[in-house]
């Protein structure tokens, strides 16, 4: 088996035969298009214009494929960002002065988010009621 040439991770390699025609700036280009038209297409995308017809056409195909892959990548990232759920941490309650804390500990009324007992009591699903209503 013949060995293939090494392709770098950031390189996009396409066979020009995969595309019979391409459209660049509203003009259809094929392998048999004039060299001036192919170079004009390369100029439109700001890529190298050197080489013959086949080389320019391959360069255009590879560039269009790279643009398509970049578009797909951006669309996938956008879709992933829409689906991603960002957690929201609750705000931490800052306790008041030591005197206010001691007053609150006498009755634990009203509920205070900084009070450990209030938080624990609120979290219980089977709380005990003192008026025997349940």
The separation of the N and C termini measures 82 Å
3D shape: rod-shaped
**What is the CA-atom radius of gyration, in angstroms?**
34 Å
Number of helical stretches of at least 4 residues:
4
Strands, total number? 2
How many domain units?
A: 2
Tell me the series of helices and strands, N- to C-terminal: EEHHHH
- Give the structural class: mainly alpha
Major beta sheet summary: 2 strands, antiparallel
Low-confidence stretches: none
Taken as a percent bin, the fraction of beta residues is under 5%
Q: Percent of residues in helical segments?
A: 40-55%
What integer is the average pLDDT? 82
Keywords:
single chain; 134 residues; mainly alpha; 2 strands
Helix-strand layout with pairing:
Elements: E1 22-24, E2 27-29, H1 35-45, H2 53-83, H3 98-107, H4 116-123
Antiparallel strand pairs: 1-2
Helix pairs in contact: 1-2
Task: Please provide a written account of the structure.
- By secondary structure, the chain is mainly alpha-helical.
- It has two domains: 68 residues, no CATH class; 34 residues, no CATH class.
- Helix content is 45%, strand content 4%.
- It is built from four helices and two strands, in the order ββαααα.
- Strands 1-2 form a two-stranded antiparallel ribbon.
- The chain is rod-shaped and about 95 Å long.
- The chain starts with 21 loop residues before the first strand and ends in an 11-residue tail after the last helix.
């Amino acid at each position: 088996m013949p060995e293939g040439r090494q392709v770098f991770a950031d390189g996009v390699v396409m066979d020009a035969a995969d595309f019979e025609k391409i459209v660049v700036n509203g003009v259809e280009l094929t392998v048999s298009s004039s060299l001036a038209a192919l170079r004009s297409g390369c100029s439109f995308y700001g890529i190298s214009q050197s080489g013959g017809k086949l080389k320019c056409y391959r360069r255009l195909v590879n560039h269009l494929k790279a643009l398509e892959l970049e578009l797909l990548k951006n669309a996938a990232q956008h879709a992933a960002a829409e689906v991603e759920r960002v957690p929201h941490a609750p705000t931490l309650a800052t306790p008041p002065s030591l005197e206010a804390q001691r007053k609150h500990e006498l009755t634990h009324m009203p509920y205070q988010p900084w009070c450990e007992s209030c938080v624990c009591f609120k979290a219980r699903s089977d709380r005990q009621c003192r008026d025997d209503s349940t």
